[in-house]
Sequence to fold (42 residues):
Amino acid sequence: LVEVLSMCPTNWGMSPVDAQKWVAEEMEKLYPLGEFKVPKGE
Fold:
């Protein structure tokens, strides 16, 4: 399973740069990046 953090600057009423910054600063707090379950041997 792969989850992706994505943005929609048009619907958010932000510039693309501001939306990308918001994803990095706010969404990653709730949805931290990383591998949560790694099979043995990898």
